[in-house]
Amino acid sequence: MLVFNHRALPAGVRHRCHRSGYAVNPPDGLDPRTRPHPLASFLQAIHLTGAVAQIPCREFIYCSGWDGTPFAELRTRLESDPEWHVHDLPTGHDAMHEAPDAVAALLLSERVADALPGDGPV
User: Fold this and answer.
1) pTM attached to this predicted model
2) Is the dihedral of CA 98, 104, 107, 110 positive or negative?
3) For the residues of the chain, what is the DSSP string, one character each?
4) What is the pLDDT of residues 34-78, one digit of tens each?
5) 18 torsion bin: left (phi>0), alpha (psi -120 to 50), beta (else)
6) CA 43 to CA 36: how far, in whole Å?
7) Which residues, at least 6 apart from 105, have a Cβ–Cβ distance to it below 8 Å?
């Protein structure tokens, strides 16, 4: 029998546990097609091989319009690391839905500001 300690989850996730016990429900207000996220992705550690040093271009896209984002600290750390390029998108977590042209521009290495709706900073 698998015993699960819900206190092992990040505080913002605990209240969204799916009734199956194997997933976390998405936050309210997202696309209605959004499905529960695997619980293990919040709990299992990843094991890195060291091959990250071989990646020639490291990009981080920060969705700055997402209240309660767990990535603010990571953004600050990567912004001070010269091996990383940090981009800000003034969107919530679903950047592809909210600003598809800006995401496409980033993926295609084009100028992000030209693709953002309005004249928001990047």
Assistant:
1) 0.63
2) negative
3) -----GGGS-HHHHTTB-TTSSEEPPPTTS-TT--PEETHHHHPPP---SGGGG-S-EEEEEETT-TT-TTHHHHHHHHT-TTEEEEEESS-S-HHHH-HHHHHHHHTT--STTTSSTT---
4) 888 887 887 788 888 888 888 878 889 999 998 878 889 999 999
5) beta
6) 15
7) 111, 112, 114, 115
